[in-house]
Design goal:
alpha+beta, 126 residues
């Protein structure tokens, strides 16, 4: 069985992205737009199978239709199921990858891919 590539590594391998190194850190730049890539995430109360099914459609609307993990105050919370995100603020692209914590270890369950539309509200870390 082949290992699933992490979202960050996958982006770095795409021809429309470049890595800019600065002293200790590096940034991924979306070359066509010139924008820095922002990485985020969204946790869900749905099962990993439901999240993967929504992810496989390639549409943001399928993911936003799922139940976000929220605490008792309605603020974003964490669970064992999430979608890792990468995007630009200007909306040039949105890529995602489903992940599940298995025995407390974050495990990518599908290869990353670009989604059909940009929706920053999907990112709970923003």
């Amino acid at each position: 069985m082949t290992e699933i590539v992490d979202l960050t590594d996958w982006l770095k391998a795409q021809p429309e992205f470049e890595v800019k190194k600065k002293l200790l850190f590096s940034s991924i730049i979306h070359t066509p737009s010139g924008e820095k890539v922002i990485e985020g995430f969204r946790y869900f109360t749905n099962s990993i199978d439901e999240v993967v099914a929504a992810f496989e459609t390639g549409t943001v609307s399928a993911l936003t239709a799922l139940d976000y993990a929220l605490d008792e105050d309605g603020d974003p919370d964490t669970t064992s199921v999430c979608i890792k995100l990468a995007y630009t603020k200007g909306g040039a692209f949105l890529a995602a990858q489903p992940q599940e914590y298995q025995d407390y270890v974050p495990t990518d369950v599908r290869e990353p891919k670009f989604l059909d539309a940009f929706d920053i509200s999907l990112d709970q870390s923003a």
